[in-house]
Design brief:
The chain is about 40% helix and about 20% strand. The chain is an alpha/beta fold and about 325 residues long. The strands form three sheets. Strands 6-5-4-7-8-11 form a six-stranded mixed sheet, sandwiched between helices. A hairpin with a 3-residue loop joins strand 9 and strand 10. Helix 4 runs parallel beside helix 9. The longest helix is centred in the last third of the chain and has 24 residues. The two termini are about 25 Å apart.
């Protein structure tokens, strides 16, 4: 499936963000959302791996001044770096994900771009990525090897599908709960209607053994006036019957009631995720999702501003 112009624009910004950030910043950024564990890799601030004499070309910040004072000469230390070496990107591909967002994008487009954000930073850190699609018909692990361009190609080709089967978010969460690689980051992308009280038990199971992020795509309020102006004029219709909401039902009272109910459900989900140290990234467009992601990773780099990380307003 060929990505839309909006997706292409956002993807180029994602790619620029991933390549412009230094590797230590990428590690700290992903550390905001993941549980870190010992890797036996150098470059961090945990257990001591090696001590040697300072040599020309070494970074001055690598000098341990206490050890240097005891030795009487500059000494460089290498410490164990804490990382998650595997990232599981799970996407709901039920036909419900063809719903329209206020931007005019489909929910699956926003979700796919959100996964691209995690892929860009994970690949920058040389993590292994597993891409998994799930609906009521099957749970499919899509083979992926390569860089960010290959990830884009892989996810776009996989999304060129009939979208005939309904979602089965329960099965997708169950797949995540059985991932054996403990401490690997798990990202689940779906829309705001998918997760209900029955799924919270599985979410708690996942969060006990894995850092968890839920990509929660917000779709259009069906009672909003038409057409929806985003990437282009869009008329909202029922996915099964093709029928549109009658004009006499598009009242401010109905709009407010739906918005209030959705806000309540979103707050309840956030509270549940917070209890298990998981988090949600929620938005109604690729642009807003990108900015939410930048705000999240900016917390790992206090001196950075949202504008400097995102490339400013465009």
């Amino acid at each position: 499936m060929k990505p839309s112009d909006e997706s292409e624009r956002i993807r180029r910004r994602i790619e620029t963000l991933g390549t412009s950030m230094t590797l230590p910043t990428v590690r700290r950024a992903l550390g905001v959302v993941e549980g870190e564990h010992a890797s036996r890799r150098p470059g961090g601030a945990d257990d001591l791996l090696d001590i040697r004499q300072y040599e020309s070309g070494d970074e001055s910040r690598a000098i341990d001044w206490k050890i240097s004072a005891r030795s009487g000469r500059p000494m460089v230390v290498q410490r164990e770096r804490l990382v998650s070496s595997h990232v599981y990107l799970l996407m709901d591909v039920g036909r419900e994900m063809t719903e329209v967002c206020p931007s005019g994008e489909r929910a699956f487009e926003v979700a796919a771009n959100a996964l691209c954000m995690f892929a860009a930073l994970s690949l920058r850190r040389s993590d292994d990525i597993s891409l998994v699609f799930g609906d009521a018909a099957s749970i499919t692990r899509v083979p992926f090897h390569g860089g960010f361009a290959q990830f884009e190609k892989t996810i776009d080709e996989a999304l060129g599908r009939p979208w005939a089967a309904p979602r089965n978010i329960g099965a997708l969460l169950d797949y995540a709960a059985h991932v054996r690689d403990r401490d690997a980051l798990v990202v689940v992308a779906t829309d705001e209607h998918a997760l209900g009280p029955d799924h919270l038990k599985t979410i708690r199971r996942i969060a006990r053994t894995h850092p968890l992020v839920v990509i929660d795509v917000t779709t259009i309020n069906p009672f909003m006036p038409e057409p929806i102006r985003g990437a282009g004029p869009v008329h909202v219709a029922d996915a099964r019957t093709g029928r549109r909401v009658p004009a006499f039902l598009r009242t401010q009272a109905d709009i407010a009631e739906v918005d209030t109910h959705r806000a309540y459900l979103a707050k309840a989900l956030d509270a549940e995720l917070a209890r298990v140290d998981a988090r949600a990234i929620r938005s109604d467009s690729s642009e807003a999702m990108f900015r939410a992601f930048v705000r999240l990773i900016a917390s790992a780099r206090p001196a950075a501003t949202i504008s400097s990380l995102s490339g400013g307003s465009r």
